[in-house]
Design goal:
The protein has 117 residues and is of the alpha+beta class. Helices cover 40% and strands 19% of the residues. The protein has two domains: 60 residues, no CATH class; 55 residues, no CATH class. It is built from three helices and five strands; from the N terminus they run βαββββαα. Strands 3-4-5 form a three-stranded antiparallel sheet. Strands 1-2 form a two-stranded parallel ribbon. It is elongated, with a radius of gyration of 16 Å. The two termini are 28 Å apart.
Length: 117
């Protein structure tokens, strides 16, 4: 699994500090798994147009077309049009390129966890 988190989630104010610590600790444990990569996209990068969840199939398989999926506040949407899928893949690439490395992202999560302790 590959996940890019906006830095703002590390500072979420909706949760009590104890809950936030548990969530951040869970992210640290997940990031130590060999099949999980967590990246943090810093606030300064302002990822316009990337609000919500964005997923893209890695490539067409077993006769299935490539798809992109977005998850908004009210509903999710699938996109199969090749030009739309390409736009979403390009957006994911820009987010990935702008995010901290996995090591720096983990360090950022650990620093925030320490601030809450």
């Amino acid at each position: 699994m590959w996940s890019i988190l906006d830095e703002s989630v590390l500072y979420g104010s909706a949760a009590e500090p104890a809950v936030m610590r548990q969530q951040l600790d869970h992210l640290v444990k997940l990031s130590e798994l060999p099949n999980v990569t967590i990246l943090v996209l810093r606030w300064a990068l302002d990822p316009r147009g990337s609000h919500g969840t964005l997923r893209s199939s890695p490539s067409p398989s077993r006769g299935r077309p490539a798809v992109a999926y977005t998850d908004g506040m009210l509903q999710g949407s699938y996109y199969e049009d090749p030009s739309a899928v390409l736009r979403y893949r390009n957006a994911l690439t820009r987010l990935n390129n702008g995010a901290d490395s996995p090591e720096d992202s983990l360090a950022r999560i650990r620093r925030r966890l320490k601030e809450l302790s």
